[in-house]
Specification:
The protein is mostly helical and about 220 residues long. It is built from nine helices and no strands. The chain has one domain.
């Protein structure tokens, strides 16, 4: 059996989604690192942290070990391929870069939110809240690491509909999993919903409420 035949017939929908999410998140990290004029090592580091940061934190929280990319080194190959792909498109214009970043980041968020929920549900003891939290952690932690390393304010800490989109996707997956549906449907619908919500929120400027700081004079302590 060739390598192609193995992936075509042996790898399930979940694994395909995981590989695709890893590739897109790694690509988003590599593109940001490239715009920051990092060298090849820096690009690989940012791509790696973006792609596996959320899954690693999830596995540690759930007490799973060794973490996924240690058990299956193929994830490292996927990340390296994404970094190489980013180098091939390094001459993107600013507008094209922003559009590419929006899509790849949103797609990675959607895929990993659902994957995080699925992994949490596979544990013997789980609840709706744990499933949603693990979905959010898996979806946003890698992007947070990317932004912190690249000296940017993480999207999840701004008014963007980001973590909330991941929560919607994780909750949607939990709901669908209660029915006897084909896995491809159970995985695809929440991913599409999360991706659509994230992109629509950017296009239509949807955001969470922002609380303005108190008047500075009112928070000074009396001397």
């Amino acid at each position: 059996m060739t390598m192609f035949d193995y992936f075509l017939y042996q790898v399930n929908y979940f694994s395909w989604a995981d590989y695709l999410g890893t590739f897109t998140f790694a690509l988003s990290g590599a593109l940001v690192a490239q715009k920051r004029s990092m060298d090849l090592f820096g690009i690989l580091v940012v791509a790696f942290c973006t792609a596996v940061g959320g899954g690693t934190l999830r596995d540690l929280c759930l007490g799973l070990g060794p973490v996924t990319w240690v058990r299956e080194p193929i994830y490292l190959m996927v990340i390296a391929a994404a970094a190489g792909a980013a180098l091939c498109v390094r001459n993107l214009s600013s507008a094209a870069f922003l559009k590419a970043m929006l899509f790849f980041d949103a797609f990675g968020l959607a895929v990993f939110a659902v994957i995080g929920a699925k992994v949490a549900m596979a544990q013997e003891q789980h609840s709706v809240s744990i499933v949603i939290i693990m979905g959010v952690v898996t979806g946003v932690a890698g992007g947070m690491l990317r932004d912190i390393i690249c000296n940017e304010v993480p999207l999840v800490l701004q008014k963007e509909v980001y973590a909330s989109a991941a929560a919607v996707g994780a909750a949607f997956y939990y709901g669908l999993s209660q029915y006897d549906l084909p896995e491809v449907i159970t995985l695809t619908l929440p991913i599409v919903a999360t991706l659509g919500l994230r992109i629509l929120s950017v296009c239509r400027n949807w955001s969470l409420p922002v609380f303005q700081p108190l008047n500075q004079s009112s928070i000074h302590l009396n001397q």
